[in-house]
Design brief:
The chain has 333 residues and is of the alpha+beta class. It contains 9 helices and 11 strands. Helix 7 (260-285) packs antiparallel against helix 9 (301-326). The chain binds zinc ion (2 copies).
């Protein structure tokens, strides 16, 4: 987009930009122009005319920050409680291969910190952390997402779709002792996403799409469905999931002949999710207004990055106490 050089009010060379709408994501091509002024007097004069558009663009920026925060929360959680015996990642013939060593299956505890000694690109690490997590993410992040979205006027729903991966992944068990390798069909995988409507604009929030090579976490609804979606599977539904709702369904379906291992694994995962829930509850639930989410989501891009990093490190410290508990090192506080 060309840098506007003229003041939106008087047309003279501009020196300042409206920080409210600066760097807002586009919903339609070129619908997030930079608004600039020569001085504060012109900015003040132009505000009544600019206000409506600025508010819409600001809302988009808030949505993007909500998506970033949700992604940060999921990935921080997954880095602390990972459940696969991953020993490496290989990108070959357009497929991401997740190499698993069956001898390293973390039987007890089942969830362990993500291996820190892997040489893996940040992009592949995100893909691996998000693998098979789209349902989990909707559940784990439900209350947090509703809290954050509750702070802006919006409608939000979840939907299950058949999506087309850009980069499909495959789990490869080493040694060949377990032949459970599984290729995600390149044509259609089942994927759960969040739909949000704000200011009359539809958006898709997709924080686990990175497992299929979908890089953007906030995408205009129309272009997401045109580019990514083959067909609708279920929904849209009201977004009522809470941290363990998928595990609750699993529990109700447990048959008598299901192994103790399976039950204990689910119980362990539940404990981890509830520990995450405690973090969210302590941060947000004691407030009646959406004020803390506004605080978290406001500020300059630099200020927001600092808040995001603080949120991430706080969550990791919190989850580390669960990991210590799972290893029998300490009691949960
Ligand atoms: Zn001016
Ligand atoms: Zn503006």
């Amino acid at each position: 987009m060309p840098d506007p050089v003229s003041c939106a009010s008087c047309g003279k060379p501009a020196t300042t930009r409206c920080s409210g709408c600066l760097n807002a994501p586009e919903h339609q091509p070129d619908d997030a122009p930079v608004t600039a002024y020569c001085d504060s007097k012109c900015q003040h004069q132009q505000w009544p005319a600019h206000k409506a558009q600025c508010r819409i663009l600001m809302k988009r920026k808030t949505l993007l920050r909500i998506a970033e925060l949700l992604k940060t929360a999921l990935f921080a959680y997954r880095e602390c409680v990972y459940d696969m015996p991953l020993t490496g990642v290989k990108y070959e013939e357009g497929i991401l291969r997740l190499l698993m060593d069956p001898r390293k299956i973390p039987y007890r505890p089942w969830q362990i910190p993500f291996p820190s000694d892997l040489s893996i690109s940040p992009q592949h690490k995100e893909a691996v952390l998000a693998t098979n997590q789209c349902t989990t993410a909707q559940c784990l992040l439900g209350p947090l997402a509703r809290y954050l979205l509750g702070g802006i006027k919006s409608i939000f729903k979840v939907v299950e779709v058949h999506a087309e991966p850009v980069v499909p992944w495959k789990v490869v068990w080493l040694n060949g002792s377990k032949d459970e390798s599984r290729t995600v069909a390149c044509t259609a995988v089942t994927h759960t996403i969040l739909l949000v409507w704000a200011s009359g604009e539809g958006w898709v929030v997709d924080i686990t799409g990175c497992q299929f090579g979908f890089r953007d976490i906030l995408v205009p609804l129309d272009s997401y469905f045109k580019k990514r979606v083959k067909s609708l599977v279920r929904g849209p539904f009201a977004y009522t999931e809470h941290e363990t709702s998928d595990l609750d369904v699993f529990d109700s379906k447990l048959a008598l002949n299901d192994t103790d291992t399976k039950r204990l694994k689910a119980a362990h995962e539940r404990a981890g999710r509830l520990h995450f829930a405690k973090f969210v509850q302590e941060r947000f639930d004691r407030y009646e207004s959406p004020r803390p989410s506004e605080e978290l989501l406001s500020g300059t891009p630099e200020e927001f990055q600092v808040k995001l990093a603080q949120f991430e490190s706080g969550l990791k410290v919190h989850m580390a106490s669960f990991v210590d508990f799972a290893f029998g090192k300490e009691r949960l506080n």
